[in-house]
Amino acid sequence: MKVFFVELNIIKVKISGPIELYKLALEYFPGAIEEDGKHFDYEINYLGVISRSPIIPLKTKLLKSFGGAPYYTWEDSSSRSYSYCSEEYKYGGHLIEREGNTLNIWVTKFNIHQKSGVIWAIRLIRELFLMQGLLNGFIPVHASAISHNNNALIFFGNKGRGKTTSMFTFVNQFKSQPMSNDLVLIGKDVTNKWVVTGWAWRITVGKELLKASGFNANGENLSNNKIAFTPLEFSTYTKTSWSWYSNLKSIIRPQIKLDGSLYIEEIDPSTLSKEMGSEGIEEWDFGDYLNLGFSSPNFQEVFKTLTEEIYGYSVTGDIWGNSNTKNSRLYELIGGTF
Q: What is the DSSP string of 132-157?
């Protein structure tokens, strides 16, 4: 068994599992893996595949994870809590046992795409990261993000607005550090500054954008004319390093329009707060299936304070086509001190 640590600033997790899990963690958490450490928040032990499903008590709760997996949850007489995703779920089943800050995970079934089941341990790290963020006062925002000289830009909006194109443009053209393709956590640090955390999941980029950029890389071909990369693959191919934590500089609402023109204008705080409320919130239907004690945040209250303290901009037009030089308005007006 391999023991290692994942350090994500707002949480540190000790992991024990097969070498396959360690290699997969390197793919999803590049730059965040440590070989040793004395202090950590949680311990995850991946204990392999078991042949039998657990007996579900009569008194259970049925809650969803952030990733969408349904869990039966219950506690036993010794105050251990259990979370069970049945084999009927599309990605297979598993059982999580939690006692204090120690979580044991067994896989009961997996399909051929699930990395022998160890991918569930990666998902558990990600869910713990999100839950700890909620406990620390952070909120999840539907956005991509980059960091440049420890200044982060987030790009929020509904599907098709250009979140991925914006992120990819800054990474490819300005060598900014990628942070996320689809979700970030935003909150305040101990000095009361707004900060952004990265997100450990795949990056999906349209084939046309990759072709236009001359980006010669082989990821996983998806059915929607996109290619998926792990964070390590994406960082390697773009010759950048992944950023897990950065000060928040600006909030961007992109709108891709391939008309050759680029318009950048500041959004007033009231309008920005409303737009983030309508387009910046991930679908919220998951629960505290690990019994950690978090609750749903007041998004509108946080957005009101956030937009009063951080500048927001509307960027409309051909973001990619107008970014081929560091003298572009995109670089100057949004990048600022980059």
A: HHHHTT-EEESEEEEEETTEEEEEE-
Instruction: List residues bridging with 145 in a β-sheet.
Output: 154, 180
Domains of the chain with CATH codes? 2-135 (no CATH), 139-335 (3.40.50)
pLDDT digits (tens, 9 = 90+) for 145-189: 999 999 999 999 998 899 999 999 899 888 899 999 999 999 999
Rg (CA), the chain: 21
Show Cβ contacts of residue 236 under 8 Å, excluding neighbours closer than 6 positions: none
Residues in the chain: 338
DSSP for residue 116 = G
Pairing of strands 139-141, 184-188: antiparallel
Residue 338, pLDDT score: 41
Q: pLDDT tens-digit profile of 223-268?
A: 667 889 999 999 998 999 999 999 999 999 999 887 768 888 999 9
Tokens of 325: 């030089």
Q: Collect all residues with Cβ–Cβ distance below 8 Å to 49 and sequence separation of at least 6.
A: 106, 107, 108, 110, 117
The backbone torsions φ and ψ at residue 249, rounded to the nearest 5 degrees and listed phi first, read -100, -50
**Stretch 26-51: mean pLDDT, rounded?**
94
Neighbouring residues of 297: CB distance < 8 A, sequence distance ≥ 6: 134, 137, 139
For residue 186 the two structure tokens come to 């935003």
C-alpha pair distances (Å), 216 with each of 203, 213, 227, 233: 15, 9, 12, 12
Span 298-316, average pLDDT: 95
- Report in angstroms the alpha-carbon separations of 156 from 121, 275, 296: 28, 9, 20
- The span from the CA of 324 to the CA of 212, in Å, is 12
Task: Tell me the whole-structure pTM to 2 decimals.
Answer: 0.91
